Structure formats: C-alpha cells, structure tokens
C-alpha cells in the first residue's frame, strides 16, 4: 500500500510491529526520558502565563467545593475550557496536594501517553523506524518538551484525544 516503505528497518527482518528489541528499546528509552524531563522541575517554577494559574485555580476550587460538574474561577462559572483537564488536575491535587506540580502533572502524563500511542500504532500500521522518529521528534520539539507537557493547560490533553481520534479514523 501507500504507507509501506520499501526499505524497512533491516535489523529486524522487515517485521512491521515494535518487536525488534533494539528499536523497541530505543522507543521506550525516548518515551521514558521524555516523561522524566516533562516532570522534572515542575514544582520549582511557579505557575505563569495567563491561563496556567486560572486552570489550576479552577481545579483547586473544584477540589474544595466538591462540584465536579461546573468549573468555577474566583466564584464565576468558567465554561471557556472543557472540564476534563480540570478533573485530571483535581485527581493529581488529591495525590500530590494543591501545588504547581499537581496542576502540571496531567499535561506531562497526557504527552507521554500521546508518545506511547504514536509508538504503538505507527509501529503496527507503518513501520518501526518511522514510529521511532515520529516519537523522537514530537518528544524533543518545543511543543512537547517545553510547551504543552510542562504547563497546566489543556493543550497536551487535547493533543492526546485528537491523536487518538485521528487513529480511529485511520483504522
């Protein structure tokens, strides 16, 4: 088909899944290192930007009030953002406390899950080499390593669900 590459990874006899130990190891190493980098130092930097403190405060108010249905920001209804990210932040705040690390934790996990999703599905549908480079490039680009994965915004969670939806359309 159109997605088959004539020069597959020669280390693994042309198998299309991530069964090659060397390629699987590389992908796992990139994903693990990325997750560590995404989480490293998130508690040291205070919330910044305009939206990051607002998202964290809405999650904190959700945690304190127990109202998981309608997010509030400073006692005003906040319908500008979808509540799923707030729910994830509330769960993280229950585990780690109401702090910057907990507010950013769902973004780091969502970006890591996006990398895993790409690795598994591209490894099965296309080939291992493309899966590796796709994961590597997304993990090391500014949006992955510095932007969406290290802020308490909705971007990383949105990227995870859009990526999953695109694969559902493809499959």
Key attributes of the depicted protein:
two-stranded antiparallel sheet; mainly alpha; 171 residues; 7 helices
Helix and strand arrangement:
Layout: H1 21-39, H2 51-65, E1 72-73, E2 76-77, H3 84-96, H4 100-125, H5 128-140, H6 142-147, H7 155-170
Describe this structure in words.
The chain has helices at residues 21-39, 51-65, 84-96, 100-125, 128-140, 142-147, 155-170, and strands spanning 72-73, 76-77. The chain has a two-stranded antiparallel sheet. The two termini are 14 Å apart. It has 171 residues and is mainly alpha-helical.
Condensed summary:
The protein contains seven helices and two strands, in the order ααββααααα. By secondary structure, it is mostly helical. A two-stranded antiparallel ribbon has the order 1-2.
The general outline is: elongated
Helix content: 55-70%
Task: Give the N-to-C terminal Cα separation.
Answer: 14 Å
Low-confidence stretches are 5-15
- Can you summarize the main beta sheet? 2 strands, antiparallel
Mean pLDDT figure: 88
Q: In DSSP terms, counting alpha (H) and pi (I) runs of 4 or more, how many helices?
A: 7
Per DSSP E runs of 2 or more residues, the count of β-strands stands at 2
SS-based structural class? mainly alpha
Strand content: under 5%
Helix and strand element order:
HHEEHHHHH
Biggest sheet, spatial arrangement of strands: 1-2
Radius of gyration: 18 Å
């Amino acid at each position: 088909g159109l997605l088959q590459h004539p020069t597959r990874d020669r280390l693994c006899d042309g198998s299309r899944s991530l069964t090659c130990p060397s390629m699987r190891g590389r992908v796992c190493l990139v994903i693990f290192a990325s997750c560590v980098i995404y989480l490293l130092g998130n508690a040291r930097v205070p919330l910044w930007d305009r939206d990051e403190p607002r998202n964290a405060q809405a999650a904190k108010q959700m945690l304190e009030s127990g109202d998981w249905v309608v997010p509030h920001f400073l006692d005003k209804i906040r319908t500008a953002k979808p509540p799923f990210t707030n729910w994830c932040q509330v769960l993280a705040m229950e585990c780690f406390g109401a702090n910057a690390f907990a507010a950013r934790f769902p973004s780091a996990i969502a970006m890591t899950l996006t990398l895993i999703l790409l690795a598994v599905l591209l490894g099965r549908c296309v080939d291992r080499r493309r899966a590796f480079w796709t994961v590597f490039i997304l993990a090391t680009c500014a949006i992955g390593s510095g932007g969406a994965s290290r802020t308490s915004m909705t971007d990383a969670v949105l990227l995870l669900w859009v990526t999953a939806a695109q694969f559902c359309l493809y499959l």
